Write the structure tokens for this entry.
Amino acid sequence: MEVVRREQVIVKDGQIRLTGLPYKRGDRVEVIVLPSEREAEPRPRLTVGQLRRSGLIGLWKDRTDIEDSSAYARWLREQAQQRGAAQ
């Protein structure tokens, strides 16, 4: 049995598109979809010096609409976690 392996990223919920397969009209195939065990490429980590120079620290310091930046950051994280569950 010949196995053709393709790795795809889901762009639209519940859908994948496979092209370039070595089969012709009328050929019977079986499709098995498995979540990939490979992790995405790791993001490069910033050193402390790079983080200080990045502008991320103190990003919200001049915002007058954010009274408590810790509470605001917590709220943003909660919103991000709930985004996937709401569907």
Q: What stands out?
A: Residues 69-85 form the longest helix (17 residues). The mean pLDDT is 84.
